[in-house]
Design a protein that fits this description.
This protein is α+β, with helices and mostly antiparallel strands. It is about 20% helix and about 40% strand. It folds into 2 domains: about 35 residues; about 130 residues, Immunoglobulin-like (Sandwich). The protein has a 6-stranded antiparallel β-sheet, with no helix packed on it. Strands 2-3-12-11 form a 4-stranded antiparallel β-sheet, with no helix packed on it. A two-stranded antiparallel ribbon has the order 5-6. A hairpin with a 3-residue loop joins strand 2 and strand 3.
């Protein structure tokens, strides 16, 4: 066999021999990384602001607020009476809660603060609720209702993943649901 041909064949054999272990090693590393990065309880929500268009207004009023504990998250539900339009919202982590209309700071317990705006008026009296022994929620304060928008502050343990969605009741009312994960 010619010397150049032998060198080419040897080089091809060497590349083939090296390629197999490298491919296996990369595949193993990728699988390990994917396994270690698996989200808590399958939660992939993240913590950026969740909002609809500011023009989404609902004529029904907020009639109640309730909270529940689940295996992977704490849940806050705003009950809203039947009305017309589209129920809008703006839920976001803030450095400081502010009162509607006044813009004055409002203190609240917790390592992180969620400012919640429901694009509907409210009939609920101003309330403050403390969540003793809850995994994520710490304190809820109604901040007020101003010009058809209702604001609440929710103190949570830390800046954690959250999701927000609206459900329609059989009577035409709405429920604004906010879930905050127990951890990342």
């Amino acid at each position: 066999m010619h010397t150049t041909t032998r060198r080419r064949l040897a080089a091809v054999g060497l590349v083939a021999a090296l390629a197999t272990p490298v491919a296996v090693s990369v595949a193993t590393t990728s699988a390990t990384a994917a396994t270690s990065a698996a989200p808590y309880c399958g939660i992939t929500w993240g913590s950026p602001p969740k909002a609809t268009s500011p023009g989404n207004l609902w004529t029904g009023a907020v009639t109640g607020v309730r909270a529940g504990r689940h295996a992977c998250y704490d849940r806050l539900v705003f009950d809203v009476a039947p009305g017309s339009g589209r129920l809008g919202y703006n839920v976001q982590y803030v450095d400081q809660l502010t009162g509607p209309g006044s813009g004055l700071p409002v203190p609240i317990g917790g390592g992180a603060k969620l400012q919640i705006t429901v694009n509907a008026p409210s009939t609920v009296a101003a309330t403050t609720r403390t969540f003793d022994d809850w995994r994520t929620f710490r304190q809820l304060k109604s901040l007020g209702s101003f010009e058809g928008y209702t604001d609440y502050g929710l103190g949570v343990r830390a800046r954690l993943p959250m999701r927000v969605f609206v459900l329609t009741d059989t009577d035409g009312g709405r429920r604004l649901v906010i879930d905050v994960a127990h951890r990342w």
